Amino acid sequence: MTRIEEFGWRGELEGGIGRVVSAHGDYYHLVCNEAAGEIIARKKKSLFTRMKSAAPENMRPMKTSFKLPIEEGSAASVVKPMTGDFVRFRYNAQGDSLITEVLPRFSKFERRDPAARRSAQVLAVNFDTLFIMTSLNEDFSLPRISRFLSLAEDMGEAECVLLLTKADLEGEGKAAGLEDLEETVGGRARILKISSLTGEGLEDVLPYVKPQRTVAFIGSSGVGKSTLLNVLAGEELVATQAIQEWSGKGRHTTTSRELIKLPSGALVVDTPGIREIGRIDEDDLFLAKGVSTHRWRVK
Ligand SMILES: Nc1nc2c(ncn2[C@@H]2O[C@H](COP(=O)(O)OP(=O)(O)OP(=O)(O)O)[C@@H](O)[C@H]2O)c(=O)[nH]1
Ligand SMILES: [Mg+2]
């Protein structure tokens, strides 16, 4: 299997296809079949992509509950590459390689921008499974879960799992409204309960972390996204941080999106936590922490 296939590519095998594993301003870390399997590439200035076609048939996951190809028929738009994207690039062994096209995304999770300055903010792309994660402590919120699930309805060709984290804390009875969870979810996602601390329920997660399949972790800061990633990796791959005692909420530990390959061969996108800003207007519920725009210096 070639490197790009290991990283989830299911399309035609041609040269110059890469997958973004992390973004650093206008520079992108790509895995690909060129060079030693990874390169740094720069984004072509004003990268225009006509997103009129759906992802090719062979790019789609085998099991799907959604039929609508996303972005079909939409007008030409500027698409900035992001972690998880498959891109076309022009390889240059001497200097900067150039990303020339962002390939159509077969799934994406986005929310309306709270300030409405942009039409939408994309949080994850090209995942086979979306893990919406929420912890079983005082931070548990049925309206938030409902909001996440309605955003996931338009996500394209992927399945959605609601992961209730910190099951070891459930006994403390701080997750108000837990008894109404099934009704709120209304069959829109499979519900799993796990504890990264005790290992409870982790066996139910394993079927989703399969070779060449991508899982995106989404959820508020401190719900244990990075902790789960480390447990699945079997080592301390990414930093995690203790929760703030007084609020039950975490303090953004993960600050950029990164695509990580697990020993199982699965690809995971760990995302920065989404911060809730209010409960008045459903559309304004979320404020995500921006992706780090730290620039890579390529010598
Ligand atoms: N009791 C308990 N604590 C957990 C569990 N999983 C994670 N934690 C703790 O929760 C805190 C936050 O975990 P992180 O994994 O950093 O949370 P995160 O979702 O990645 O947070 P951001 O990166 O800020 O979005 C850490 O102190 C973890 O040790 C769990 O299953 N049970
Ligand atoms: Mg994290």
3D structure, described in words:
- This protein starts with a helix and ends in an 11-residue tail after the last strand.
- It is 11% helix and 27% strand.
- It is an alpha/beta fold.
- The chain binds guanosine-5'-triphosphate (GTP) and magnesium ion.
- Residues 225-226, 253-254, 270 line the site of magnesium ion.
Helix content range: 10-25%
Characterize the biggest β-sheet: 6 strands, mixed
Low-confidence stretches: 48-53, 62-77, 243-250, 276-299
Mean pLDDT: 80
- Reading the helices and strands in chain order gives HEEEEEEEEEEHEHEHEHEEEE
Number of strands: 17
Reading side by side through the largest sheet, how are the strands ordered?
12-11-10-13-15-14
Radius of gyration: 19 Å
Structural class by sheet pairing and helices: alpha/beta
Quaternary form: single chain
Small molecules bound in the structure, each named once: guanosine-5'-triphosphate, magnesium ion
Strand content: 25-35%
Q: If you consult CATH, what is the topology of the largest domain?
A: Rossmann fold
Specify the CATH homologous superfamily of the largest domain. Answer: P-loop containing nucleotide triphosphate hydrolases
Query: Architecture of the largest domain, CATH level 2?
Result: 3-Layer(aba) Sandwich
CATH class of the largest domain: Alpha Beta
What is the overall silhouette? elongated
- Count the DSSP helices: 5
Total domain modules: 2
**End-to-end distance:** 31 Å
